[in-house]
Amino acid sequence: MTSIAKAAAGTAAGLWLLLASVAMGAQSERPAPPRDLGATPPAAVVPRVEFVFEFHVGLDPVVTVGDTPSGRRQYIPIKGGTIAGPKLSGEVLPGGWDYQLALADGCMLLTADYFIRAADGTVIHVLNGGPSCNVAGERSLFHPRFEAPKGPHEWLNRGTFVATLEVQRDAVPAGAPPAGPRAIRLRIFQVK
Prior knowledge:
Layout: H1 3-28, E1 49-59, E2 63-68, E3 71-84, E4 90-92, E5 97-102, E6 108-118, E7 123-132, E8 141-147, H2 155-158, E9 160-169, E10 181-191
Antiparallel strand pairs: 1-3, 1-10, 2-3, 3-4, 3-5, 4-6, 5-6, 6-7, 7-8, 8-9, 9-10
């Protein structure tokens, strides 16, 4: 082996040892986790929610698409509705959709896509979704996201929100199959 080849081999081996020692040193320098890791945090750092507004949304009849590789697909056209609350009022514009995918485990994935108009005339896009499983003792919560133009409602773009959903159905005679939803009441809470 020539002296150049020996030097190159020695340099490569030296570089390898240097990298290995740096990697091992980096592992040993990792800070120890806090002693209270996993304990319930103090109340001062726990997020809270604030009610900001609610929607009452009228729905057209359910349109069943059918069974797909992902589950049973259906959608519900949105007729429009009313918005009221301490931080926003206005109307839900007709023409949106509530897309639903029923899964084999009994849960349903919901995704609603529609527009609202604030009392001042500002049009805001809403995309709301989440799972609904109807498991005893569990409540379905949804995650609405808003896209508002710059101006007085842009706080909606920056906020984190959760929503509760109440389905309103028409009464049906005893023994008849349950009616599809007629309307929903969606309460929006901002996480603070």
